[in-house]
Amino acid sequence: METNKRNEKTTGFNEITMETLRDRAVTMRDCLARSQIITDSMTSILGSFDLRLSALETAMRPTQVKTHSMRKAHENIDKTLKFADAILIQFELTKQAEAVILKGPQEDLQSYLEAVGQLKTIVRFFSTNKNLKTSIGVITHATTLLQKASMMLEDEFRQLLSSYSKPVEPDRLLDCLPASLRPTPPTAHGEGVRKNPADHHKDLENVVYRPPTLIPPQVTPLLHDLAQQMHQAGHQQQVFMIYREARSACMESSLRKLGVEKLHKDDVQRMQWEVLEAKIGNWIHFVRIAVKLLFAAERKVSDEVFEGMKSFMDQCFAEATSTSVSLLLSFGEAIAKSKRSPEKLFVLLDMYEIMKEVQPEFNTLYESISGAEMRESVSALTKRLAETAQETFVDFEEAVEKDATKTAVLDGTVHPLTSYVINYVKFLFDYQSTLKLLFLEFEQIDPDAQLAKITRRIMQALQNNLDGKSKQYKDQALTQIFMMNNIHYIVRSVRRSEAKEMLGDDWVQIHRRVVQQHANQYKRICWSKILQCLTVQVAGNDGTSTAGVSRATVKERFKTFNNQFEELHQRQSQWSVPDSELRESLRLAVAEVLLPAYRSFKKRFGPMIEGGKNPSKYIKLTPEDIERMLAEFFEGKTLHDQKR
């Protein structure tokens, strides 16, 4: 029953809900119907507006077209007026430019250049507006003015450049050098003195070069503007010729005033060596001045005058200096081609050294294609100097070995050839760095080993020659003294020089033994015979008694000893051992053998004579006398000194 009641309540609730929904749906249909009516009304109203606007637009179109045409007309009128003003301005500018052009560039070059630029602008203006009746006339007139201006600019460029292309005075160039590299004052012959190569290398450390200003800074911009105008006008050839003529003469005259002269091989051959050596020393300074100062300054001038015209700039610089480069190198080429001689080796090395020094900077100055020929000329001279120097090495070695000097060294002292060769070798080692570069010029080798090889060959050639000269002596003892003196001088000089590093300790030790061998040979040849006088061999005698020895024999032995020793003293005191240490050691070596033998002989046999008549006739010398006389050996005394 309760269940039935709940069902009745639920059914009643559902009926109420459905009724409510139906009412709402009816309301919504009514609203939608009213909205559709409103929409239709709005559509109708908007449609009527569209018709009205279309009609209005149709009515106004003629007015709009008329207004647009009027606006276009006004714009065209404005453009025409502006163009007319521009034409009038161009005519006025033409008139102004013409006045300046006809006046010439002498008074105000800058204004003249501006007028030329203005004329070019005017030509471009009328060239783009050739439909104007006046265009052709204006263009023709302006072009004529420009041609006239070009001729005037060419004259002005020539005159301005010529005014500032005077030769540079030598003192001005020398003042630009670092103080340490300035040439020494000229001698009475007007020539400078060459510096020691070791000093030269020190001078090159941290040096600063200050190239001179060849053209004032306020003038180069004007020259640049002139060159640029002419270049743009197609007158490159005229610019090139004017620049080359003025600057080439300036460069060459500057070098000639400095002292550079053109020489040929025959000129070199005719010169005395002292004059030629001085000229070479000066030339080395000239090369440094030319490349590091004069050509560097000229490079700056061409760079500033032809800025923005790179290839033209390089060509003008190369041509402006080509004659000067040829003049400068001609001297070096004449030396390199002239007859070789040993004394020229060091000046050849000096010349090679300066060429290697300036070559990097020269290559930088002439790095363009236009400078290729000059770079090749410098490179060729450098290599030619290296070849000549290397060939001179060989010549010197052969000259040393074949030296046939007849000058006899009567006292057995150091031969002039020995001191000459040793000084030559010592001087070579002052050029070590240069020599190493020179060796690498032709092949990749160890330069230290090559220098050592050359030094050994020269030393061997000297020894071979000395050996031949030693055979001129009739006295074999003097032969040994001569060889001992000379080999000792060589060894001592090597030990005190940089040559020792190259030749090595083994070489020094071997040759010290050679010196000792000659000293031993001298003692054997010279003193063996006299020592025999102090020896008496008697059968059955123990060598301490006088048994079996006659007084006559003893007298004869003393007499023979006296004669031989006095003869040796007289002769060998004229011989010379110039090295005091060697001289004393040789005397000591003789005394150590002779004095004990004499003392022993005198002690043993002296009493046999002293008891007879005139003992002083036979025993003339005491051991002290012998020691004193030995101290006079090898002093190089003359006969006059001995008598006195």
From TrEMBL:
<dbReference type="InterPro" id="IPR016159">
    <property type="entry name" value="Cullin_repeat-like_dom_sf"/>
</dbReference>
<protein>
    <recommendedName>
        <fullName>Exocyst subunit Exo70 family protein</fullName>
    </recommendedName>
</protein>
<comment type="similarity">
    <text>Belongs to the EXO70 family.</text>
</comment>
<keyword id="KW-0268">Exocytosis</keyword>
<feature type="region of interest" description="Disordered">
    <location>
        <begin position="177"/>
        <end position="199"/>
    </location>
</feature>
<dbReference type="GO" id="GO:0015031">
    <property type="term" value="P:protein transport"/>
</dbReference>
<dbReference type="Pfam" id="PF20669">
    <property type="entry name" value="Exo70_N"/>
</dbReference>
<dbReference type="GO" id="GO:0000145">
    <property type="term" value="C:exocyst"/>
</dbReference>
<comment type="function">
    <text>Component of the exocyst complex.</text>
</comment>
<keyword id="KW-0653">Protein transport</keyword>
<dbReference type="GO" id="GO:0006887">
    <property type="term" value="P:exocytosis"/>
</dbReference>
<keyword id="KW-0813">Transport</keyword>
<dbReference type="GO" id="GO:0005546">
    <property type="term" value="F:phosphatidylinositol-4,5-bisphosphate binding"/>
</dbReference>
<dbReference type="Pfam" id="PF03081">
    <property type="entry name" value="Exo70_C"/>
</dbReference>
<dbReference type="InterPro" id="IPR046364">
    <property type="entry name" value="Exo70_C"/>
</dbReference>
<dbReference type="InterPro" id="IPR004140">
    <property type="entry name" value="Exo70"/>
</dbReference>
<feature type="domain" description="Exocyst complex subunit Exo70 C-terminal">
    <location>
        <begin position="282"/>
        <end position="632"/>
    </location>
</feature>
